[in-house]
What does this fold into?
Amino acid sequence: MNNPSVYIKSATQISIQQPLCESWMQEPIIHEVPYVRCSDPSFRDWLSPMESRRMGNILRRAVVTASEAMRRSGVSLPDAIVTGTGLGCIDHTEAFLRQLYEEGEEMPRPTSFMQSTHNTISSLIAIRHHCHGYNATYSHKHLSFDSALLDAFIQLRLGDIQTALVTGNDEMPPTSFNILQRAGYVGQPGQVPASEASVAMMLTTDPDGSLCEIEDIRILTLPAALPSFSEPLDAILMGLNGHAPHDEVYRALQQQLPAAPLLRYKHLFGECLSASALAIYAAAHILAAGTIPAHMSKSVRRHTPPLEGQGEVAPVRRLLVVHHSDGHQISLITLRR
Amino acid sequence: MKESIVITGSGIVSSIGLDKQETLSSLLAGKSGVSPVRYLKTAHREFPVGEVPLSDEEMKSRLGINAEPTTRTVLMGMLALDEALGEARLLGTNGRPAILVSGTTVGGMDKSEQFFSDYLQNDSRNDYIKIHDCGTTTDMIASRFGIFSMATTVSTACSSAANALILGANLIRSGLTDIAVVGGTECITKFHLNGFHSLMILDREPCRPFDATRAGLNLGEGAAWIVLETERSALQRGVPILARLSGYGNACDAFHQTASSEDGEGAFLAMDKALRMASLQPSDIDYVNAHGTGTPNNDASESQALRRLFGSSLPPVSSTKGMTGHTTSASGAVESVISLLALRHRFIPANVGWHTPMDNGITPVCHVMPDTNLRHVMCNSFGFGGNDSSLIISLYQQHHE
It folds into this structure.
């Protein structure tokens, strides 16, 4: 088959909204604090207490969302597992660094180091599911998940593979929040909460039972001429996070894009390096549902409780997801039903 | 593979040379760059390492920059990229004709491990916090040149740079770009020196890949890049074509986070995929640049995989890590450039350090073999977590078919 179409068959998350479900669409939880950790499911349903403890947060969330995405898609052995993570297993990394700092180089203990490399996530999923297929990890700041998605997308389009599990994972332990706040990335005035997330989605070339189709993915270094959009867009989903200099980049991009209603999602999920994974996850479910929850419209004031009722009943069939990384590079991902 | 992906440039910086010329001299002489630690401020003086023989200040001086904050990983990446882009005639080019894909895992850890307490307690090193992550490393390297329409970063431990080549090639095949500059960069840090030590896989002696007495690896550092391009684009630009990337494969061992399976399943699958993509038989491979770290586990596992794949037609094999040390995330590119040098200068590099055959192991080439015609060279990179990749670099002949 020449250039097969690519579909998102299933997509799930653990985030600061209710885990492993889409209740955020009708019953969003609004967080009005600068820092929020994930609402975790009961990991006991998937992991033994020892496994759970040993893995730590990012790994067990990754394992569970991956399992769920596989189960819901009916694909138990994907041809590829591709992961994006901005800072990797930062908790384990910090633990090992702290050990070196506090105890010196005398007797380093291996456990934290073994689980600290960025590719621990992707390989752990492969180990647990006995998956020998293509396996890769991308760590490119806010575009880590986008890079992973692009990799899987082009391989599916080339016909190299038929299925791919794509995941995005980042964690925000307290030390990370403190350090990143110091660097100005989170905890800024007006900004949505600093958060964390694990997202997993199954991509296939089979349209049956899918949530949506991925039409195109572009990653571009700015300044750049944006591609033209031949068909109309029903909405544009942007990573507005309430911090003025950051949101200014989206305003400038908006000028170069076709006119379409703007949607936001970080008011729900907060800010983390895997936020774009949440954007694609949310977009896929919005397209599957066919309607846009009212609280996602940019015109609704930030931190306003959701409107009554089902939200706008507008047939939404084609969405553009726009994401920028420090105003330097952007991703443009077009999804459709 | 339909459209030919050719190589039009390369650059390299490691403990055996600051460019291709020096690297070639070292390879032909079988000269190792592994020696007692000189630049890294570590208490572990007992582990020999393959450091790039320049301080950070000397690197900046060579680059003609004085920028802080920066990191050693960035500086090495820039040095090697200067060379690769120069050869490919992409320096100072108009527009943004290329995509950059880099492999790294430590990123700015050389600075973060020095300033960690400041990160926790005060604002004096906030600029270094911003350059800790892998992606920023790549962006900083890219920004020196201004020719990239996109940049991204692979982080699959010791196969990172090899996987960067694979993504670059796939981006070309998918029509998203004509030119992909691919490779990786990694400096030695206390973090991973102590990490590897905690796993008891470092040797206090110079490493001996595939040797019966091998006791572990020596860490190295370096950066290397390869310029991949469509044949059409290279011919159009009139830039010399150096070789062809004829095949590649990525597979997961799916066995253990820090050890390879006994039968080398991931390695076998990766090499097999590469051969199939290149439409080659095992007997077509003239030389294998092995991953060959010198750890008991890797060399046993890789030997098994090689035997399974090649059977009785095992070509000459050598690991060059006895000379460069294990350059971790950069190794896939460092060793691809070494493979490219071998192909173009018609020699097989030596597996320095080898003396005694190991049980069920392969017997590597232990002296440089000059005047050897090579048509197809296989280059292996196997990372923690079972991220196994294999690349095949072949002679380029116009109108090949």
